[in-house]
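Tokenised fold entry reproduced for absentees:

. . .
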Amino acid sequence: MKRTEVEYGDTIRIVRLEIDPENEENVNRWYNEEHEPLLRKVPGVIATFKGKILDENGQKYCFLYVHENLDVQKSDLYGETSSTKWAKEVRPFLKNFDGRNYKVVVPSRLPLNLKKGNIIRRVEFDVAREHEQEFNDWFTKEHIPALSKVPGMMNIWLAVNLGDTAQKYLAVYFQENISVQQLQDFKEAFQTNWLKKPLSFLKDHIVTNYEVYVDF
């Protein structure tokens, strides 16, 4: 389904998991043919993205859902997308499931019609509480403007974890390909004088790259 307009969502839901290798084809067919189409029909579900990890550590699959708000997940129709006969059949083959909800605090244009080879870069981290305002000033006033000028950088979001586990902050970078991160402009955006201070109070920093798969 192609979108012709830009939409924004208040909530990001990210699901990471492994799939039993012997049943990978069946699970992927369920997701592509039933689960994702049903999700896209739920009022308040704005977009769905999926990717495969490029890094050595972490679950192999990542699913990113954009919702109008957190209440979308509480609807009966939303719950039914994971309770069909086919969904129950494939559930035992899903391993190391990790689902988290985030509130978007710095939105950006919704990336339209991502294709295979595009990158979803996830950066999770904590910030010392007394420095959160300073970090947010740097992120919005320098970091986003600098990266937005890098060729191949598509969109940047900043969100806050709504749960009690894992890091508080999540930054999501949509890129045309993994080579974007090797460009000099990209590297220089992480080497500014202003950045040196925020780096000193960032902790539990984890970076994960996923390649977008339209039909995997």
In short: Residues 24-40 form the longest helix (17 residues).
